[in-house]
Amino acid sequence: MHFPQGDDDCKTPRPTPLYAAAASQSTSNSWTAINGWAAARVYAKVEEEYRAASEDAALVDLGPLCRYTVRGFDAAKVLARLTTTPVNELSVAESARGLILDAAGAVVDFADLTRLSGDLYLLTTATPADRRLDLAARGFEASVSNVGAEVAALGIVGPGARDAAAAAGIDVLSADASAQGRVRGVELAIRPINFGAAPGVEIIYPAEDALVIWERLKRKRQLPVAGIDALDILRIEGGAPRPGVDFVSADRAAAGAARMPDEIGLPHLAPPNRAWFNGRRAMKNAADPRRYLVVLTVDTDLAPVGATIHARAEIVGRVTSAAFSPRLRRALCFADIDAAALDRPLEAALPEAPGMRLPARLHDTAESRLAAAFRETTRAATESRR
Amino acid sequence: MMAQRTAIDLLVIGADAAGIAAAACAARTGASVALAPTGLESPDATATSEPPNFVWRLLDLHQYDLRFETLPLRTTFFANGAPALTTTDDVGETGRRLAALDASLEHLWPAFIDDMKRSAPTREAAGGLGPGPYQSANAALDDYFRDEHLKTHLVGALLAPCGLAGDEAGSAQALAAAGAWPYRRTATTPLIEALKAAAQAAGVDQLAGRLAALTRDGGKFWKIRMEDGRELRARGAMASSALLAEAAGVRVNAAGSPLLRRSGAEATIRIRYDRKPKLSAKDAAAAYFTAADRQAIIRARNSMIEGKFEEDAPLSFEIRGKEIIAKAPYCPARLRDNGEVREWTGQDRQILGRQAAALIEQRLGAMLGTPREITVTIGPDVAAGLARRSFDIPPLPAPPPSHDSIGAASALAMEIVRRD
Amino acid sequence: MTELRRKTGPKIEGGVDAVIIGASVDALAAAAILARGGLHVVLIETGAGRFRERAEFAPHYYAADGDPIATALDQQTIDQLDLYRHGLAFARRRLETFVRFSDGAALVLPGDPAFAHEAIAAMSEADADRFADYAEAERKTARQFAAWFSGGAEPAIAPDLRTEKAAASIEEAVTGRFLDARIADYLRAEAALGAASRPSEPFTYLALLRRMAGDAAGLQGAVAAIEGGGRGLVQALRRAGQAAGVGIRQTDRVKSVIVEFDRVAGVEFDDGGQIRAPIIISALPARETFFDLVGRARLDIEFARVVETPSPAIASVRVNLAISGPLVDPHAAAALDRRFLYAPAPIELDRAFRLAGEGVCGAPLIAELIFPSALEAGLAPEGCATASLLLHPVALRPPGDERWRESVDAASRVAFGRIAPGSASLIEAIDIGEPEAAAPPTLAAIERREILTGASGLEGYYFCGPEALIGGPLSLAAGRRAGERALAFFKQGGFD
């Protein structure tokens, strides 16, 4: 899950519960609005924030994401229909990730699901899903409420995230299980998350105690806070597309711009053999992908924002988002390219130097490896059936 | 002056602000354009919403000295002392205000505005999450919201000004205006002067007098004759507004929009008080509406069809200095008493004016002074035009009535010119 | 979902290719078409909607279920199933229409609408040519639209024509077209009969074209009376089905449709018994077909929203009248084997729609009157008659609502009195049927049909319920289309 595209026409971004704490860390004062919430692009220096998040640990205000609780006898049914997550296989405290698809099988959004107790689920989405949830819950015994303003969501991202949490007395039991506990009188739910290439944990607790836990984490270890720009590098390295930037939600897409899960490189998040979910039948019957969203490396020091991708003389795609990866010492970008061009040698033409072509190579990310493995097993299964 | 036998590219019928802007925009793109007044253009339009950016750019409206005022609030007063409901140009802020009525509205309101903004309901939408193109506005609102006051507010503010009551098939299309509500407006007279100058500069042939006849010439051309006998042939033609053209007896086609069907007229009521209302500047910068509930709105519309004016018919009004300018959208064009149809008399107008003043006083109460003078004008009668239009010629294209009439007409004009 | 785990439990039946649920004429047509295609078909007639034998609604007066006349019968279904050989016959092939106006004037239109010139000339000389030209032009458009109305693809016609015809209101299309306003009143009544929107609302004109495109007894726009009424058609279809080997079962209720891996696999009954089949056609209403039998949890959210769209609050109601003697008005009494229509004045019609919207039933309404006893023997005592009156628009109310019944009763008397002046006192008994929800605007109905027949992507599931019909029952086209699509699916072997 990553933050969606910022909303430019938001007139009065709201402070998240962690805003007061986060703002005190900001020296660059570079803010944007995401889902109507104020979010920092950079707190101090992108490079340092990136280094902390990729090598040690950094705090992240995850408040701008959308959070819902779904409660009731039919909660699992509603969520199984709405999202592609394996709801029915979740034990209490387990989390799973998936997608939300429309009736045509095209991707609307990401969905992270945690089963908090028997019939209480916490759903996190990148963009608001109130209307869709309202419609999905009709006729079922389930109540949905948007809890975005009632909870603080504090992320710790990086290989040292668990240690940092443990140092503050917050234990994360295993890689998939979430935990509930109490630290200094504050009720917490802790769950593991992945932020692109970086592992992490997310701590969700009542908004009124926002600063208590923040302060405690800061006091135990001097963790820096990471803004959206630093996280953007991490998520491209990890192969996680950003809604609204790398693909457009099917709910807002113009004709031909909607994308199927396979086309954005996430087929493993919507396996067609899972219990029925919205759009599955349409997805299964859809034609073969015509375009793919892939991560490419380009040997340059600049992020190739706005570059076009060529296969010989032909333009076969365009870069949707890009960053310079300090780890790889080359530029990484998401590109939307013709399916037919995947096997051909690709080149990027940068807007600064239109005549010059730089080789662009497919790059394996954590996500693309999962997708490749999934495609392989699906193919094997189909062949063995024949 | 053009020669008789040559045909121009586009003829715009209706010389209101939308018509002048449409003619000027089409001429700017290189077409030869003539503008024909119908003679029914309302002389007392007080304010027009800001022209959209593409019209501004094409006509270089920055050259003219136009001042805009912002009306960021839309407020509906309900009957029986229910608290007034306000929506504003700030979606997030409105959502938080509405959460007091129903907690889910905080997030459903932005979702609704977003759906409305994205597009007018399209053919595809019926299988999606938004309203379908043939749905009624009431059915669409019931699908989104539970709060009755909010639904009444939206019908009263979005649909009533177009003469709709929300139960008509296809009226859901009019809800799309919620996503493109123009919050800035300017006085009409200077705007029309500016647009006329821009039209002049663009080479629009602005005809004098009024339209006498519209016919087809050889199945390919439109032909008009003005009252002074001047004749003109054109390859394309359009109406500046569906209502204006229908009132002039021209059959129009507004791409399936239900907005143009109108069996009544709009009454304008100007009430001059002895002093300015005691309102903060912020509250004065609002468009106000009065309504009881959605059933009452439908009742008022039905009474209009029957030739009566309902006492609690919804009104919209604005405050301008010492004056309040109110509009009654469901006003019969002619009155019917015991089966007898008759024209509006001075006495009828007086009664309507006093009714409206009483209604406004009831809602605003002590803030107002004493009314000094009330004038009432009844708008053009569309039904009269409907009865005498010609079926021998195809319907004339017209923009769907919109809260941004200039934008809608200009877009249509450019589309017609481009197509030919 | 029910699995096959109970081996010793209730009966599980196999070897069936297709199960058809429902008892409507469309269900019967679909079943017969599949059986003729060589499939092993089981038709499950559920309680609701089953045609009953004629009932005695007043002492010695009998009425049959369903519409006594047909304005649309799918010729292709009749040919494919050879229905004439199986007993389909017409009591009258081309009924005249006797139109009464609010001013008491009458207009008698011939059975073939193409010959209306003289009749119109008798009323308004100046309008005769005008009407003939207009009707000819619109019949041409109607023919282009006919396949679209009956479930085919939208015709490729000029977009201008589509916008003009499809978006227009009846009011807009007919007001001011004729010198004699009563001709517009007649057209308005034909179009508004059975429609949920008032004549001034957009998209309502299409209903008139739908009426003109309807084919009865091989003639477009005509009205025909089937021998035995709706029951006569049902019997012919049943015979055709039985001849092709359709097995008919009767049960009160199907509990659910079994879905396995996005495909239907059979139906289950309340006792746990099952019939396994790769094809299921449902002629039940959409809500039952999808929500009750399949369940929302297996349907797309967007699809469920369409199923759930509330029906309009406007309805039509059929009323049976016992008439105890010959009609007084010689004009109307001249022949009873006609279709009578009361065409209200615009102001009357508008008031009727307004009152219906407010939950009341006004008067006068649009009324279509048929005398079944004039078409079929033995329905009424000698010298008396039965009349079947269709009133529109009325409020959609539960039939138990006493105030509503009283107002329908009063409206029936008014309507009968208007059509046959002086004869209202002959009404000996009134039998009020259940109100039937009016049709949404034709374009909306077509769009809903397209989505519903897609069945949310469930393979092998086909729908021909009331929501699949456009404008008026007895068309059979929905059943034929569902049957044909199921047959194509079966032949391509998509289910194994």
Summary, kept brief:
With 386 residues, chain A is an alpha+beta fold.
Major β-sheet annotation of chain B? 7 strands, mixed
Strand content of chain B: 15-25%
SSE order of chain A, one letter for each helix or strand: HEEHEEHEEEHEEHEEEHHHEEEEEEH
**What structural category arises from helix and sheet content of chain A?**
alpha+beta
Distance between the termini of chain A: 37 Å
Order of strands, main sheet of chain A, comes to 13-16-15-14-17-18
Share in β-strands of chain A = 25-35%
Query: Which regions of chain B contain 5 or more consecutive residues with pLDDT less than 50?
Result: 121-126
| Helix fraction of chain B by DSSP (H/I, runs of at least 4) | 25-40%
CATH architecture field of the domain at 19-63 and 148-238 in chain A: 2-Layer Sandwich
Which value, in Å, is the CA radius of gyration of chain A? 21 Å
Overview of the structural elements:
The complex is a heterotrimer of chains A (386), B (420) and C (496). Chain A contains 9 helices and 18 strands. Chain A is an alpha+beta fold. In chain A, β15 and β16 (330-338) form a beta hairpin. The relative contact order of chain A is 0.14. Chain B is of the alpha/beta class and 420 residues long. Chain B has 13 helices and 20 strands. Chain B has helices at 17-28, 53-59, 91-98, 105-118, 137-144, 148-159, 188-202, 242-247, 281-284, 294-305, 346-364, 382-387, 405-419, and strands spanning 7-13, 33-36, 47-49, 69-70, 73-78, 85-88, 184-187, 205-206, 211-217, 221-226, 231-239, 252-253, 265-273, 286-291, 315-320, 323-331, 335-337, 340-342, 371-378, 396-397. The longest helix of chain B is centred in the C-terminal third of the chain and has 19 residues, at 346-364. Chain B is globular, with a radius of gyration of 22 Å. The relative contact order of chain B is 0.19. Mean pLDDT of chain B is 86; it is low at 121-126. Chain C has 496 residues and is of the alpha/beta class. Chain C has a domain at 12-55 and 67-86 and 227-310 and 440-491: 3-Layer(bba) Sandwich (FAD/NAD(P)-binding domain), CATH 3.50.50. Chain C contains 17 helices and 24 strands. In chain C, strands 8, 9, 18, 19, 20, 21, 22 and 23 form an 8-stranded mixed β-sheet that branches. The two termini of chain C are 20 Å apart. Mean pLDDT of chain C is 89; it is low at 1-6. Chains in contact: A-B, A-C, B-C. Chains B and C meet through α5 and α10 of B and α5, α11, α13 and α16 of C.
